[in-house]
Each structure stands twice: as structure tokens, then as C-alpha cells.
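the two lines:
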Amino acid sequence: EIVMTQSPATLSVSPGERATLSCRASQSISSNLAWYQQKPGQGPRLLVYGASTRATGIPARFSGSGSVTDFTLTISSLQSEDFAVYYCQQYNNWPWTFGQGTRVEIK
Amino acid sequence: QLQLQESGPGLVKSSETLSLTCTVSGGSINSRIYYWGWVRQPPGKGLQWLGSISYSGTTYYNPSLNSRVTISVDKSKNQFSLGLNSVTAADTAVYYCVRPLYCSGGTCIDYWGQGTLVTVSS
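prediction for all of em together
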């Protein structure tokens, strides 16, 4: 099983600032990496797939990068609605696996 | 717009079998190209894929569940189901039914149900 490790566990950011979230895979997953946002009481929402392609309807302030084992999700200017938990997920090998999540909280 | 809705008991006794059904609306489950699956999330914790099934019945199960999971499709009802036997308190979680990420023409999309909390009691 591919282990996905996210850092940091919690990120404290002020509105309008940039947030950078990291995700590392225990082995190569090419670019088969997705990012999800989850708010309390809701299911995950797809933000990015293919490591860098924004899903339909996702604002341009969200951008993904990376390949092989190291990936980054950047939120360029945090809005109030962006404070949530973010998960990376690899879909290169079964079982598909998620990172443990990064909580983005208001500083 | 495709919609998925989980249903089933919210309380299951320890050592018994957890059974959930996902009803698909706004589209047919009878498609050769899509898979259908289940993801769970224990309270306050992360997400775990349990398994998925294709239109033809090909299944992929998470080995960490030690063969306790079964997923099936009922094409006549446009539903698919999850069974998890020998449950313990560790199986208490929100269970989501999902149409997993599918990519075509460079665009990928997935669909999630709203999730249903299942509590395992002793």
C-alpha cells in the first residue's frame, strides 16, 4: 500500500495570505494525485486531479504542482470559505490511499 | 446531475454485519465505463477506500479489511451495496458511496454521496 504523508498537520494563515500544503508518496505515483477539500459535516470536494489540473468550477487561486513522489497544493490568497481540511489522494495503485489531512485554520 | 444517496441502519451491534445501500439517480449504474465504490471516515479521522465494483461485477477490495468487505450491484434498482462483517467499534465511521474519479478527454470528475454515520455498539 502506498502511504501518503501530508505536512503540516495544521496550518494557521491569515485571510488574504498564501497557503502551501505538501504531500509525499512512499513510492512513485507519476501524476496520479488528487487534492480534496472537506468542510465540517460535508463530504470531500475534488479540487485538483492529475496533480495540477483544477476540477470544474474550482477557483484559480487553487493550484497544484509536483510529480513522482512530491506534490504541493497552493492557495494563493485565502478566502474565508477556504478554511477547511485538505486531503491528497493517490489513484495510481489500488488501494487508493489518502493522506492524513492538513487543517487550514484562521490565524 | 448524478446524485448518490446512502441508506441503511445507523447502529450495528459488534460482531454483526454492516449493510448499506447507495441509490444512484440522475444517471444509470448500467455503464461499462464507471466504477462504484465506498469510502469511510471514522469520527475526527481521515478517509479510507473500502472497495469498488464495475458494471460487470469486477471488484477491488482494500486488503487491510481482511476480506470482511463485499460490494455488489443491483442494476434493476440502480443501486450498489456494501457489506462489512464482524464489525467492531473501529468500524464506526461516516460511510460515503462514491463514483470514483473517472477521466475522459482530459477532464476528470467524481461524485460523492452525503455520507451516513454508522455506529457499532457493544
